[in-house]
Amino acid sequence: MEILKDYLADQPAELNAEMLTFVANIDMVAKKSPQIAKRIVKELTDQRSNLKLIASENYCSPAVQSAMGNLLTDKYAEGFVGNRFYAGCDNVDEIERLASEEACKLFGCEHAYVQPHSGADANLVAFWAILRKKVQTPIMERLEKTNLLDISKEEWDEIRAAMGNQKLLGMDLFCGGHLTHGYRHNVSGQMFDAHYYYVDKETGVLDYDNIRQRLQEVKPLIFLVGFSAYTRNIDYSLLRQYADEVGAVMMVDMAHFAGLVAGGAISGKYNPVPYADVCTSTTHKTLRGPRGGMVLCKTEYAEYMDKGCPHVIGGPLPHVMAAKAIAFKEAGTDEFKAYAHNIIKNSQALAAALVEKGLDVQTGGTDNHIVLVSVEDMGLTGRQAEDALRECGLTLNRNTMPFDTNGPWYTSGLRFGTAAVTTLGMGKSQVMEIADIMAGVLKNIKPNLTKKGAVSKAKYTLDAGVKADAIKRVKCILDEFVLYPDIDTTFFDKYFGDR
Q1: pTM of the entire structure?
Q2: Which of 109, 183, 373, 407 meets the CB 3.0–4.6 Å disulfide criterion with 296?
Q3: pLDDT band at 498 (very low <50, low <70, confident <90, very high)
């Protein structure tokens, strides 16, 4: 394939840099695999054809993407800055140092570890760092040993038994917590004696008195705060007091709202960084960076976090650390601060509009980028609602509601967010239109019966007229707010056929 040659032949003297880069990249891929190249282009056209409302997704900048697509990916760099197990890591050292410095400046933290490949990795790194500092090190000091290789089998068994019998108190998955917060099907629920706290059954809001009671009952080593599906701000100053009362290490998973903290849209006692011993996060949600993770911590935990390799992860990804550094720098701008505040304005407008249209919005609204809607009273499952909305060009995900009887596969609700549509430049008028489209679709879904005559949890019927109208209205919005507008995908039609 000669995609690049054909493109250059049709262009004026002044070329669109983003389009040229995209074409050149696709050209290289297509020469090896036209099928893969086609799917890359199609992913762009698909994302341009659907409103991205998934709360955990966003769009990163071309600069962030470019930082990931280069020869840094070829370099092994086990260890950390200045302490590598491979030669030739001078440039990786500088990149990791810059990324860590940018993160510390952005969040006002004492130390940042930027190697984790994901939020789950970041949590594992943090868990084991805390275990090593709080459990392993005191035993080693008592044994008067400094090297694990110098201890006996019996002493090693003692350390392993102590490390594997510690208590973790986290938010229940079905109340908005995350898989890595002690869920039994996740390694976190198997490496800890995991306990949970819950939201109030009536309001869906965290009960601080209950959390304090649970802390007093469990007395965990790690008190894990944070969420993947919760819509209200959390008072971290109060939870810090509760953690101190039982001597727990306070760890906050802020993967979802890190960008809102970075942009100053969540601040004061609702910003966990000044209060937590350890904060973990992804870098690709509201922070609008590459897919990856990070750990922020107090200085006393720094040496343990920096040993994430070899303790938990293997080689870091230098190209992704470079992209993280770019994203952190972007997040320190006034433009990003305005963006972070607009995310919340949009999510609050969206939630309010859905309430006005009679939908069951969890907690009655939101303080962050997430909106949760229960569809149980509409006689639907989350899976039916998710699939029907996707048919109409709205991409979001089904989600469990507190104390959900439908389980994590079918669920009773939906989770969606405004980070991505805000990146595209949408404001209140657009999210009001989205709310109207969404409500119209949901109110016209009719569950089908199974072969045995029961109401299906998966199959449904959606009125064709309602679907056609929704698709048309979604297209009108997306025609005005185009993803990566400098890239013309129609150029690729002759190479890849019908999109």
Answers
A1: 0.94
A2: 109
A3: low
Q: How far apart are the first and last CA of the chain?
A: 18
Helix (H) or strand (E) holding 446: strand 445-449
Q: What is the mean pLDDT of the chain?
A: 94
Clarify whether 303 is annotated catalytic: no
* Options 253, 306, 330, 386, the catalytic residue: 253
Active-site residue, selected from the candidate residues 145, 291, 473, 499: 291
Cα–Cα distance, 230 to 234 (Å, whole number): 10
282 given a catalytic annotation: yes
Q: Where are the domains of the chain?
A: 71-331, 334-480
Q: What is the tens place of the pLDDT at every residue in 188-225?
A: 888 999 999 999 999 999 999 999 999 999 999 999 99
Rounded mean pLDDT, 43-59: 96
Query: Is 285 annotated as catalytic?
Result: yes
Distance CA 212, CA 112 (A): 29
> Which residue among 282, 283, 381, 423 is the active-site one?
282
- Does domain 71-331 correspond to CATH entry 3.40.640.10? yes
Catalytic residue among 6, 76, 298, 376: 76
Mean pLDDT of 34-56: 95
**71-331 and 334-480: identical CATH topology:** no
Q: Is 78 a catalytic residue?
A: yes
Which residue in the block uniquely carries the two structure tokens 């102590």? 162
What is the rounded distance in angstroms from the CA atom of residue 279 to the CA atom of residue 37? Answer: 38
Catalytic residue among 6, 18, 57, 78: 78
pLDDT of 17 strictly over 90: no
